[in-house]
Specification:
mainly alpha, Fumarate Reductase Cytochrome B subunit, 5 helices, elongated, transmembrane, heme, iron, Di-haem_cyt_TM
């Protein structure tokens, strides 16, 4: 078995903070769709949380350039390396695209993007109900895709932790090498 280098502490903190925020966001989104009585309260959380996730995703992307992830185990098959690489790219695309599409959707709806109190984000698109409808569908599809990708990511993490035992999981949790 190969030893796997750990991710830097800041990278691990960003990863787990964003994991919590994104899962909360996905469940809040489901709650918004399923609830009539709590809709406005959930939206008031969903909007600023989306912007926090967008900012943190950009910080993560910059951090990833400064502190590249450790190399995957040398004995990992090429197809698994490709899947890991492609899935991480898609995760970053979705972490950035979803908040931007949400912001654009609310702009097209003519709704303010309230961060906190009187702090609002500017509209990034003109008011257009048809565009809003399209963006709402895109936002939903992207959220479902993100949820599916998170499940796959979680399954891969469990494979590395419980089956492969190659140190990949530990590199993002405890930081300890095997």
């Amino acid at each position: 078995m190969t030893q796997h280098q750990p991710f830097p502490v800041f990278s691990r903190l960003l990863h787990w903070l964003m994991a919590i925020l994104i899962l909360a966001m996905l469940f809040i989104g489901v709650g918004m769709v399923a609830s009539v009585t709590d809709y406005y309260w959930l939206v008031s959380i969903h909007k600023p949380l989306g912007i926090v996730i967008l900012v943190l995703a950009v910080i993560r992307l910059i951090n990833r350039q400064i502190n590249p992830p450790p190399a995957l185990p040398a004995d990992m098959p090429a197809w698994q390396r490709w899947v890991a690489y492609a899935s991480h790219i898609l995760l970053y695309v979705l972490m950035i695209a979803l908040p931007l599409v949400g912001w654009a959707m609310l702009s097209a709806a003519g709704n303010p993007i309230v961060l906190y109190g009187a702090v609002h984000l500017p509209a990034i698109l003109p008011h257009d109900p048809m565009l809003y409808a399209v963006l709402r569908q895109i936002h939903t599809v992207l959220a479902l895709l993100l949820f599916a990708l998170i499940l796959a990511h979680f399954a891969a993490a469990l494979l590395h932790a419980l089956i492969f035992r190659d140190g990949v999981f530990q590199s993002m949790t405890t930081g300890r090498r095997r």
